[in-house]
Batch of 2 targets.
Target 1
Amino acid sequence: MSESSEAASGGVWTRRRFFEQLMAVGGVSLAMAGMDALGFGFASAQTAPPSMPGGAKGTKVVILGAGLAGLTSAYELIKAGYSVQVLEARGFAGGRAQTARKGFEDTDLMGHRQVCEFDEGQYINIGPWRIPYHHQSTLHYVKEFKVPVELFNNDNDASYVYFEKGKGPLAGKPIRKGQIAADARGYTAELMAKVASKGDLDAALSPADRETFLAYLVNEGRLSRSDLSYKGTDGRGFDILPGAGVDPGPGKESPPFAFADVLNSRAWRVLSSVAGWDQQRTMFEPVGGMDMIPKGFVKALPPDAITYNASVERIMQNAKGVKVAYTDAAGKKVEVSGDYLICTIPLSVLKNIQMDASKPFIEAMNGVSYSAVNKIGLQMKTRFWEEKHWIYGGHVYNDIPGIGTISLPSTGWHSQKGVLLGYYAFGGEAAKISALSPADRAKFAVAQGQKIFPEYAENFETAFSKSWHLDGFNLGGWAEWGDEGRKTAYPVLCEPDGRIYLAGEHLSYLTGWQAGAIESAWQQIGKLHARVQQA
Amino acid sequence: MSESSEAASGGVWTRRRFFEQLMAVGGVSLAMAGMDALGFGFASAQTAPPSMPGGAKGTKVVILGAGLAGLTSAYELIKAGYSVQVLEARGFAGGRAQTARKGFEDTDLMGHRQVCEFDEGQYINIGPWRIPYHHQSTLHYVKEFKVPVELFNNDNDASYVYFEKGKGPLAGKPIRKGQIAADARGYTAELMAKVASKGDLDAALSPADRETFLAYLVNEGRLSRSDLSYKGTDGRGFDILPGAGVDPGPGKESPPFAFADVLNSRAWRVLSSVAGWDQQRTMFEPVGGMDMIPKGFVKALPPDAITYNASVERIMQNAKGVKVAYTDAAGKKVEVSGDYLICTIPLSVLKNIQMDASKPFIEAMNGVSYSAVNKIGLQMKTRFWEEKHWIYGGHVYNDIPGIGTISLPSTGWHSQKGVLLGYYAFGGEAAKISALSPADRAKFAVAQGQKIFPEYAENFETAFSKSWHLDGFNLGGWAEWGDEGRKTAYPVLCEPDGRIYLAGEHLSYLTGWQAGAIESAWQQIGKLHARVQQA
């Protein structure tokens, strides 16, 4: 790359201007990260745990929660020489990183108990389920624990979109996403090209740029070069596929939908110039289930590092240390003490636990809300979406209330059965469905999915559903910060209160992602360690 | 799906009109396939081998070539009861479906002999390397032989585009594809939205459609709702990634490139409303190498079905049968005879072999050309494209002469080493590079790749290159038909000449794909079997 080429541009920032801007915004550390960014486009302050040299000076840290934030804290602190005790309310580690497979149990706050009855080898990730390639913190531990990963198909043009609230002939019909992409972009490019070729954009584009713009539009919209019209494209699919010989020979391309029909269907909602940052290709998933990551941590920790079934009742601190009172598996009251505390309990739950902390700190916990989140895995006796519809993974975007996204598995290609995600829904509609019994939730999911796949009901075997807002250890899927909360409450909770450090996805801008939990933990143990070194 | 909804549309064909059209074009069989298509968008005449009931009536078929077409023919004919003998010129089966791994040997027509020195477990598919999800014929055998497959990352927004022949500050710089997509589409949507909001499209769109169109443009281009401007989007990446706490906190989105710079870079050539049909997501590859598919065939065939190292010298036929003269591994002249012949030898090679066939048949072989195709695998001692650049698979599109596509492996995530595809180039530039010695080809590939990845040269260990036009058994990568050839020569070669049937990718509209070879074989053995039944 040429050192001077960027500076020569009027529109693109010069290197110098870019650094000046960075310095103004975030000081030297951001500017340093920016230097990386200039090279290749991305940079991250946190792709690896903090270096913690200098020893632990005999410090003991109590950690509440064995989710990703707690596990990360425990693993790195032990490595740095600390004495660590983790208290976990559940009978297993991983927090929300749960995989439901045969025998997995769950009882929600309404008393609905489920035991997973999937076949051996079948599973659904009822918590986090995908890892974007830029979540290098999560991938750091994937590598550290040699967790095999496979590609997660997060964007499949062959998958359906289904919008029943749209209008016109395409509403309420499963349509391939690629057909909507081809037609919406094709017709738009045609309109644009015709405007541009008439010279109507001369104020915006120089004549030379206009010619290049037209070339781009022809390429992007797959327009006819001669008359700049969109007449369809092989990319939207075939009514008769091309093949051998003279029949089917070249096949028969599918004709485009009418532009007005595409617009009225509102199926274009699934289109975007580029996917949102956290939904981008490439995406990974651990082979065998997301809980392979927490299992990697647990294997790497000393056998007695985590005390399970420990229900925290009170968090205490004074100038010299911290103390936590909890009830153990047998119902016995126990106290543990340490020099510092890292608390990864979700704020939704933590705010109901008595804690010695300053009033602003306690009050800040009310600055966030937690989302209602539903998921359901449906075991199907055949992989009809692959066999009949040729959809290999990816999502079926739709506007069916309470369904949100239907998602097809990115694993087990060509095997007999599969577990698909029957709904992934948030908010009020999710809360409504979660009030049903597990059997009725499955009934609902199957009936709705049937609108899209005629083979749905006849293939359904067994379901496992999860409602995170009905999980007493979480009371919601993830933290949702409003602008005001981010401004006032969030910075308060990011700093320690006395000897108590909070960590978790809720203290990051990657809420709902494992990377948020890990990077928050890295940040807090880094601060704690610096304090120990200075003490 | 509603039966009547499509008929209600003015712009979309009614079912009836659609069928009428199909009947006119292709008769009942196409109309039948079209009925499938109307349900879900795609249909194929050939997703499974022809049913061949009725027995083989003691018929013996000689098959020339143990590539995908020959293997398919042999496997299905044996299943249907035929006696089969396959003659293969190479010492192994698979034809072009070759995987270079440690010890693999290749000597080209210029006398350049290579022995692959990749580490154990490393490989490159020097022939076909990917299977689109709609190549159900290829996937049929993947399933039949239980060949494990994994996703092939054929479209990676995080990968670079590199166009050194463009103009302006972005030319000759690696740029993330997603940034070009966001900016080109974003600015275009802005221009379009501003035109539309001024009412300039009233001839093309009704007022209601215009409002919906604006909503689409805002969504697609990620425009500001208030002033319809494109100011960048998180989807194009960050200069400072979002993370935990308040620093980096929300991070810092990267600013968009200037529109004129994007246009002048010509990097938008990689953008298309939807990928071309044969390049679409989802794409697969066999775990461990493409030759796992031919190996599956060979394992399923009787041990003596294939005679290797058989160099065909003459193909004879008369009214009663066929006879093939070949030279065996020891240089001895041998003749085999049978009732029918299926010849899968590429036309580029076949036209130099003496064959008893009609003059029009022989002449038709001149109606096709074969492309020069180069590939090179470069073993790198670290996976720097993943570790330093966060590019996990996908292609680096570029305009470097002789390089074509650079492609990063979709397998071995997080392992130590990797083999990337250093060039995949066609035509004259490929021919020029293939004239170099293997060592000089590698030198060229490494020097060019270095323009994009600064870690290229220091990581390079060993290479294996293939030039298909310099392979005496192929004389080119695949058949390339012009319009005239398709019209006149192609139909002649699709029909048998006497007792000789040709098969292979060259007799399909899927040239260069394994699916073309398989479907061509299916078609020809289907015809042959029908003839045997009628005889």
Note: Residues 15-40 of chain B form the longest helix (26 residues).
Target 2
Amino acid sequence: MTRLATPVFDRVALLGVGMIGGSVAAACRVRGATGRITGYTPQSDAREALELGLIDAAAGSVAEAVRDADLVILAAPISAQPALFTDLLPHLRADALITDCASTKASTVAAARERLGPAFARYVPSHPIAGSERHGPQAARADLFNGAMVIVCPQPENSVGSVARIRDLWSALGARVVELDAPRHDRVFAEVSHWPHAVVFAMCSAIANGGFSEDALRFAGAGLRDSSRIGASSPQLWADILLDNREPVLECARAFEVELAALLAALKAGDRVALAACFEPGSRWRQALKP
Amino acid sequence: MTRLATPVFDRVALLGVGMIGGSVAAACRVRGATGRITGYTPQSDAREALELGLIDAAAGSVAEAVRDADLVILAAPISAQPALFTDLLPHLRADALITDCASTKASTVAAARERLGPAFARYVPSHPIAGSERHGPQAARADLFNGAMVIVCPQPENSVGSVARIRDLWSALGARVVELDAPRHDRVFAEVSHWPHAVVFAMCSAIANGGFSEDALRFAGAGLRDSSRIGASSPQLWADILLDNREPVLECARAFEVELAALLAALKAGDRVALAACFEPGSRWRQALKP
């Protein structure tokens, strides 16, 4: 991995030190992308992240974490982010930038705009397309963003220089940075991430609640293992994400229900041609998805 | 890989030489599990398998393939298997055994029982839990069954010796053999394979037929890639499998629809606790699935 000669930021406040926050911290250290990292979390795991060597210090409050930082990174669950904007504002250095890692952008941007006042201009929203079904700082990986895509959603108030520095940070962690406006981000990620999680949770819960859950553990092949992997994700985290992005997700749900109804009608009717025709657009789409 | 000193069978007739049949042939050769393998397929790919070096000879008819064989392996699509039983019977050696690779068992067993007469006693049904979304002899892999599970469904008419020889064949290819009765096999595999394929096809077709299919190709992360992988499977092959195992699959569909309805109700109501509760059994089940 390439290591920067000069860090992009000198002192980082990391608000939320779970799998994503912990990986940001680990990657920043390995890449030399930032100086000292102080972690804070409303739960108890900032100390755990400190013990794991992911961060340099565990702060007891948002104020203590943010005070000296020239970059504040929010990596907390979506529902915790609005309160963090309120709490960090009085302690924010006049030159500090803010970014985040949330999987939905429109509501976080709205909360930031409402709560940060003029400092909103220094908030450049990010969404790293990385992660796994695992969670907590023990699951952090320094190479999580290496080769991953990071979406940055610049706001009209952002300066070109602020956007460039946030892009530089993610690039330094090995990521490929792509810009997208927030509403389009949310609609596209409902399609490629949020709704697929809902479908897979439903598939796994149907197995779990049925009479063959033990057999399913024993006889699951590679197909079910791969297709169900994201079903091991955190129910609370994903309830948060889906509710936060409800309208785009419900649009995806309606499209899925149309496909499901057609498939079941063909299956019940014993119509082989119609059933294969239901599968064909999906099969062609998936074959077009490059490895 | 261990190679047998003495093959389990001397001459094999392989009826169907696609990805699964081709992999059986390649594995038999590498492991020394059988002698000469003659392939036959109603389509054109037995010649392709010959050119790929998977089989020793390409037969022009079922009669020619089966005549000298002490083992006949059916690896054709499910809907093609009943006719193959009829066609092979007049040419079958008196001591030959028969097995197959179909993903559903009850209908294939019924067809064999009806068409093979007394020779049904020499048909020992198999289902190798291996494969991929790829198809055709180009996708064949000699190590496909190495470490995989193979379900064998012994019939009351089978001799203990016949069952043991079919088990020995799969074991020689590196597989772990498990016995299951055919109706239970079909119900369990509806749960762990057939219905999950239907769900993933519906998910992929909804993306393909929606307005964001290009964005989805661009922004798909590891989660969607893994969960959609089996969506690239053959629509015809899976229409066959789902129709062949319709009643067990429809049982799974009903359980899935219950979960989906609960999830959507919680999402529409904005009920975070209820939504997370929908995900929890599935998340726990998936976490219990060993890697």
Note: The first strand of chain A starts at residue 9 and ends at 15.
